[in-house]
Design goal:
Number of strands of chain A: 37
Largest interface: A-B, 35 and 44 residues
Radius of gyration of chain A: 28 Å
Oligomer: heterodimer
Strand content of chain B: under 5%
CATH architecture of chain A: 3 Solenoid
Distance between the termini of chain B: 20 Å
Number of domains of chain B: 1
CATH superfamily of chain A: Single-stranded right-handed beta-helix, Pectin lyase-like
Number of helices of chain B: 12
Number of domains of chain A: 1
CATH class of chain A: Mainly Beta
Radius of gyration of chain B: 20 Å
Helix content of chain A: 10-25%
Distance between the termini of chain A: 76 Å
Number of strands of chain B: 0
Chain lengths: 424, 260
């Protein structure tokens, strides 16, 4: 009896395995590999997508495909050959993804439509998790990669650009909205409205991207918490980088260059709490960092080089700690228009510091006053900027330094360093 | 004129002051580089020196040389030489020898430090160009003062006053008027006022290189156009040339008519 039962069980297992194996080979519901080219089985991508089964790979061979609004509603891998290009011909979206586990790589998508009511994007991902967008070239994009309510994705090695000249008609390079756990790596975004835009995006990483010549911000994020930004470069963007209404942000090793203009910042911090800003380089920006209404922010080991204003502190800032930063040859080190509060400047290197160090401990013996009277004058009467670095201004700055009247007398670095902070 | 120029030039080259001046600049450059260990910081400090000290030295040296060589000038006037070439020759002799001291004095330490391989080379050359312009302008102005004042003390007084006015007082007045007339659009006014003072003008030229990021922070179309495009550089240089040519023309005119 026992033997018989065993025999049955073994047999059943065998039969079951055989059945499953058969299913693997013949089942139409399993992964295929489809090709698209002018003389392949499919000569356009839309048909291939419709015919493909979930999990399939669609290889797009070289050629120009005049298609638009390609809707992907199942898990697919869309892989382009080197010269495969989708020309949207200004007809709305490029690719619309509405399914989990979709990969799009190696494609060139150009001429996305422009609209003032719809956010047309080269690649539009909505309510889909585990997506991957890599090695694509998105030219003449309105929005490049637009992600909505999607989680766990990777956007890597893409080049996104446009030639729009007006903010209103342009879109953002990589735009995330209500998403989380997305990683954005090694992309180059330029000539768009905002290079990278986050709104309600949590636990995401932006690493090693190059965002330049955008009309508005190189990086713009709001209401996005616990995000990390490292090793990015932001150059010559209309207004630099704006960081607003977010908590627990970490920014390190980023570079901010030549963001010039009347409202142009290396970094604009507004309503930011508990952030870390470490080891960034801000060079030749009109304003290096502007801080407004931000609390508990640590600035450490940053280099401020030849900025107009290295740091502008507006009102309602508390517990901002500036420590071990290098302030090199900025026109103004710090501009301050409120009380000091409990913000602290300590142990920084100021190239304008003219004190001495008799006990040779590397720390200057007299405190440094980073706020100059002239920066107040310029605040009141902006035209006086034309008198920058004149002898007369040096004289009034000096007299203010000796006995502060207009500048907050407790705003000083008690331990200015004699030598530049070495880091990296 | 060339002969007179050559004579004045060699006369000054042989005098001690040219060397003192040269050594002063060489030491200034060396000390700045040695203390700062940073080319761009040294250039910023030098800029302050250049826009203040060069006009001072140009003025003092010019007026001193004019009064000093008065007897020689009278001797020359007795010769069949054109008056304009006597005075312009002397002026150019002084200005060129001062400029040479500046160029060599500052050039040597910076070249040894390796300015040619540094990106700061353009800032530095601009600094030298501005220095030369200021030397020419202020020497010419002091010659004008000399030609118009027989009394040495008076002449010296005016020369010092001229420098003080251009270097300090002018900026003070400009600042006060800018702050006082705060409510009016002032960008055109401030730019025009700046061109009235060669020291301010050269300061702006250097600012265009060093502080462009701060200058572009001001909201104003005129400023934006002036600072944001190459027009600022071109206009400033053009006005500086006017500033050299005009006093030279006055030397020429005065020299023709002056009674000795």
């Amino acid at each position: 009896m026992i033997i018989f039962r065993n025999f049955l069980e073994v047999n059943f297992a065998k039969i079951y395995t055989a059945f499953v194996l058969c299913g693997l080979i013949i089942s139409p519901s399993y992964a295929q590999s489809l090709e698209v080219c002018s003389n392949c089985a499919f000569d356009n991508i839309q048909e291939a997508i419709e015919a493909a089964t979930p999990g399939s790979t669609i290889k797009v061979r070289n050629g120009i495909y005049r298609e638009n609004n390609l809707l992907i509603e199942k898990s697919l891998h869309l892989v382009g050959e080197e010269l495969a290009e989708i020309d949207v011909e200004n007809q709305g979206y490029g690719i619309v993804v509405k399914s989990d586990n979709v990969t799009i790589s190696g494609l060139k998508i150009s001429n996305v439509g422009q609209s003032y009511t719809d956010d047309y994007a080269s690649i539009y991902i909505t309510r889909s998790n585990h997506f991957k967008v890599s090695n694509n070239v998105l030219k003449e994009a309105t929005f490049g990669v637009l992600v909505e309510k999607s989680h766990y994705g990777l956007i890597e090695n893409n080049t996104i650009s446009s030639t729009k000249t007006e903010e209103a008609s342009a879109g953002n390079g990589i735009h995330l909205w209500h998403s989380s756990n997305v990683e954005i790596r090694k992309n180059e975004v330029f000539n768009l409205r905002d290079g990278i835009y986050f709104e309600f995006v949590d636990d995401s990483k932006v690493i090693d991207n190059y965002s330049h010549d955008n009309l508005r911000y190189g990086l713009h994020f709001m209401f996005s918490n616990r995000d990390e930004y490292h090793y990015n470069t932001f150059t010559e963007n209309g207004a630099g980088v704006a960081v607003m209404f977010s908590k627990f942000i970490s920014m390190s090793h980023n570079k901010f260059f030549r963001n010039w203009g009347t409202a142009s910042y290396g970094i604009l911090l507004k309503e930011i709490y508990d952030a870390k800003i470490f080891q960034n380089t801000l060079e030749e920006n009109t304003i290096g960092i502007q801080v407004e209404g931000s609390t508990r922010i640590n600035y450490k080991n940053n280099d401020f080089i030849q900025n107009g204003w290295a740091i502008k502190v507006r009102g309602a800032c508390y517990t901002n700690n500036f420590e071990a930063n290098n302030f090199l040859n900025n026109s103004f080190d710090i501009s301050y228009n409120s009380k000091l509060n409990d913000n602290k400047f300590s142990g920084n290197y100021w190239s304008n510091y003219s004190g001495y160090d008799l006990d040779k401990n590397g720390v200057g013996d007299v405190p440094y006053r980073p706020v100059k009277l002239f920066s107040y004058v310029v605040n009141e009467t902006p035209e006086t900027i034309i008198l920058l670095r004149s002898l007369f201004i040096s004289i009034i700055d000096f007299s203010e330094k000796v006995s502060p009247v207009f500048t907050p007398d407790n705003l000083l670095d008690e331990q200015p360093l004699m030598k530049r902070v070495g880091h990296d | 004129m060339l002969k007179i120029l050559k004579y004045s030039f060699y006369d000054l080259i042989r005098s001690r002051w040219s060397y003192v001046y040269l050594i002063f600049y060489a030491m200034l450059g060396t000390v700045l580089l040695f203390l700062n260990n940073d080319l761009s910081k040294a250039i910023i400090t030098l800029m302050n020196v250049v826009t203040v000290l060069i006009p001072l030295i140009g003025t003092i040296f010019g007026i001193m040389y004019y009064y000093d060589s008065r007897e020689f000038t009278e001797l020359l006037l007795a010769q069949p030489i054109k008056r304009s070439s006597i005075f312009l020759g002397q002026y150019l002799g002084v200005a060129i020898s001062l400029s040479a001291s500046l160029l060599i004095g500052l050039g040597i330490p910076f070249i040894i430090y390796g300015i040619f391989t540094s990106p700061a080379i353009w800032d530095f050359s601009l600094l030298l160009v501005v220095g030369v312009f200021l030397t020419f302008i202020f020497t010419a102005l002091s010659f004008n003062i000399g030609l118009r004042n027989e009394n040495k003390i008076k002449g010296f007084g005016y020369a010092i006053l001229l420098w003080l006015f251009m270097a300090v007082i002018f900026d003070g007045l400009l600042l006060i008027s800018l702050v006082y007339f705060d409510e009016y659009p002032l960008d055109k006014f401030s730019l025009i006022a700046t061109t009235l003072n060669p020291i301010d003008l050269s300061r702006i030229l250097i600012l265009l290189k060093l502080d462009i990021s701060a200058l572009l922070g001001y909201t104003g179309a005129v400023f934006q156009k002036f600072f944001g495009t190459s027009s600022g550089m071109i206009i400033s240089l053009a006005v500086l040339i006017v500033w050299v040519v005009t006093p030279m023309y006055f030397i020429y005119r005065k020299a023709l008519r002056k009674d000795f």
